[in-house]
Each structure stands twice: as C-alpha cells, then as structure tokens.
Amino acid sequence: MSSYETMPFHLETERLILRPWAESDAAEFSALLSERGDETYTVERGRKGIVELLTATESTGIALLPVQRREEGDFIGYCGLIIGRSTLEEPEIAYELFRHAHGRGYATEAARAVLGAAAATGRNRLWSTVASWNTPSLRVLEKLGFERDRVSMEGTKEVVWLTRSLP
Ligand SMILES: CC(C)(COP(=O)(O)OP(=O)(O)OC[C@H]1O[C@@H](n2cnc3c(N)ncnc32)[C@H](O)[C@@H]1OP(=O)(O)O)[C@@H](O)C(=O)NCCC(=O)NCCS
User: Fold this and answer.
1) CA 150, 119, 86, 83 torsion: positive or negative?
2) C-alpha dihedral over 61, 64, 69, 70, to 10 degrees?
3) Residue 26, Cβ neighbours under 10 Å: how many?
4) 131 Cα nearest atom in ligand 1
5) What global pTM score does this model have?
6) CB atoms within 10 A of CB 7
7) Number of folded domains that form the chain
8) Which of 114, 37, 35, 45 is nearest to 79 (CA)?
9) Which of 18, 54, 61, 127 is the most buried (most CB within 10 A)?
10) Atom in ligand 1 nearest the alpha carbon of residue 35
11) Which residue has its alpha carbon closest to ligand 1 atom 17?
C-alpha cells in the first residue's frame, strides 16, 4: 500500500456520475472493449476484467471507474487512474467511451473530476501515454492542462508522454 490516501470512488459532475463497478456492468464493458475492433470480448471476459480491476484497486487505492450519464442513467465508458506505463506515485489518467458518446465533452468532463480525485489522494503529478495518431485523446489532455514531455517508440508505434502537476 502507498502512503497516499485512497482515491474517492464516487464522483459527480454536471452531466456525469463516476461510481464503483458492479457485476451488472459486464455486458456493457465487454461491448465497449469490442468497439476497439481488434477482437470480440465476451460478457464473461468483461466480468473477469471487472474482477481484475477491483482486485488491482484493493492493492493500489486508485481506480478506473464506470462513467454513467446522470439523466439517461446509461453506462458510456470508463475514466480513472491506472499505473499503466508509469508508477503508483505518479499514475496515468485513462479513459474510453462508446463511440456514440464521443464529441460532447464527456471525456474532458469525466477526466477533470478524476484530476480532482487524484489531487485528493495527495499526489503531485499525473501522466498519460497516448498513441501519436490519437488526436481526440491528445486534445482532451491539452484541454486539461497536460503538457508533452517526450515521445517513445514501441516497435513502430509512437507513444506520446504527457504530464500535469496537481495543485
Ligand atoms: C479519447 C476519447 C475518450 C475522447 O472522448 P470525447 O468525449 O469525445 O472527448 P471530448 O469531447 O471531451 O474532447 C474531444 C476533443 O477532440 C476533438 N477532436 C475529436 N476528433 C478530432 C479530430 N479528428 N481532429 C482534431 N480534433 C478532434 C474534439 O473536437 C474535442 O475538442 P474541442 O472540445 O476542442 O472541440 C474518445 O475518443 C475515445 O473513447 N476514444 C477511444 C479510446 C481512446 O482512445 N482512449 C484514450 C487512450 S489514450
């Protein structure tokens, strides 16, 4: 366990709620991952993924959280903190939303709440690593005040490292 406070697992914004995973999210979670188009994720795989996320959170105190629209009450994706390519002290912010929910500022709104949650744990810095082709994600990070630090190569894939200090 780290010396940081556990991240708050219930966050609310003007249009969104971020809350802990439920087993009943498995179907939507697998549908979201399947939208990536590289493979089909079964509901069983979604369920296993949720258990893995919950187990990771028990040992790290940070989490990816389902994002739900307040009015519609529907699951539209996830946003939160992961170790990813970084460290528990300076974790990464991550997000992924259903295509039908893109382009309405939801990722920026959810990620802004996660920045607040990260600051509440006592952390001083966050990272994000994004494929260089991913303009929408880079734009979200820019809107949140992240700055480019460096680019690394993973085979032929260019990964942009961005960072933001927390108040
Ligand atoms: C990245 C992602 C979460 C963004 O979600 P979103 O809710 O659409 O994001 P927002 O609406 O908050 O902001 C997107 C910004 O990118 C801009 N944008 C979108 N597509 C763009 C393009 N092709 N070229 C330039 N800008 C683009 C939007 O105009 C918006 O910026 P603006 O507010 O200045 O107009 C979403 O695209 C997604 O889930 N992608 C697949 C998963 C993924 O890539 N996750 C990130 C991995 S690092």
Assistant:
1) negative
2) 0
3) 21
4) 48
5) 0.98
6) 21
7) 1
8) 114
9) 18
10) 41
11) 136
